[in-house]
Amino acid sequence: IYTRKTDIFPSLHERAKIANDNKADLFICIHANSAKSPQVYGAETYVMGLHVSEANLEVAKRENSAILMEENYKIQYEGFDPNSDESYIAISLLQNTYLEQSLNFASKIQKQVSLIQRNDRGVKQAGFLVLYRTAMPSVLIETGFLTNKEEEKFLSDSANQAKTAFAIFEAFKEYKNEMEKNPSMKENAVKPKPKEDEKVIFRVQIASSAKKLSANSEKFKGLDDITEYKDGSTFKYVTGNEKSMENAASLQKKLKEQGHIDAFVVAFYNEKRITLAEANKMLEGKEYSK
Fold first, then answer.
1. How do 138-145 and 27-33 pair as beta strands?
2. Pairing mode, if any, of strands 272-274 and 264-269?
3. How many Å apart are CA 125 and CA 92, to the nearest integer?
4. Percent helix, strand and coil across the chain, each rounded to 5?
5. Distance CA 164, CA 117 (A)
6. Which residues of 253-272 are buried (b: 16+ CB within 10 A; e: fewer)?
7. For residues 100 and 106, what is the distance between their CA atoms, to the nearest angstrom?
8. 8, 18, 65, 284: most buried by Cβ count inside 10 Å?
9. pLDDT tens-digit map of 109-155
10. 3-state secondary structure (DSSP) of residue 154
């Protein structure tokens, strides 16, 4: 599935949405790089994560600056500033559920790159908005530097483009075969809790994320009973299974003391989120009409 086949500009969040809406198994961004020095050359593959060098951060800033071409980008990207270091720290520290698979695929790409006699600049991490919004293993491939005259010639040649595409395909084929032969390598994501009998249940919400979190996320540290539910496009995570508001409030207090300072009580009826007021009315014997 292509994000576009003509020379148009889909926004970064639209590209991720195409992948998410189609329940893609893998998201691959193919880019050309640039650098201040015309001597820099080679291919590198990025995954979403915390940058460990200023060079990685500069690449992310260049790629993310594309949002400045979009209308209402401040609203769409929740105040993200592509030129602010603080913005990158904020998104890069978020749990990447598919980091292991992304790194695995990225390493295969770089191996294939070296086989076609390209300079292998390795696998790197940085805060790319287009990867941050995807809900599957994702990579961003920088195929070469347009600021290097020799690489500009290489990237402009159709035969070399085909050679590069084939290298990416070979990496994909290897990754796909590996995943199919070893199902255990798939991410151990939090599974939605099975529906219970029709009744009111109180739980404590401890986290929410635009992306699905894994069961071993740092957000769930010290907890072993996590339930996931979806509210629109947001994944939300709760713990506990209390029959009364009082018990849930007690659990909330305990969780806050453990460091989950944003914990709050929520209510469910037949595993459907309802307001606390509605839950209290039902427990008082009043009719619930929804």
1. parallel
2. antiparallel
3. 9
4. 40, 20, 35
5. 11
6. eebeeeebeebebbbbbeee
7. 10
8. 18
9. 999 999 999 999 999 988 888 887 788 899 999 999 999 999 999 99
10. helix
pLDDT in tens, 65-95: 888 878 777 777 766 777 776 666 656 545 4
pTM: 0.60
- Token pair for residue 3? 């994000």
Helices (H) and strands (E) in the chain, counts: 10, 9
What tokens appear for 254 in the block? Answer: 């305990």
Looking at residue 226, the DSSP 8-state letter turns out to be E
Which strands sit side by side in the sheet containing 43-48, from one edge to the other?
Answer: 27-33, 138-145, 43-48, 120-126
Residues recorded for the chain: 290
Confidence of residue 27 (pLDDT cuts 50, 70, 90): very high
Check: CB of residue 214 under 8 Å from CB of residue 226.
no
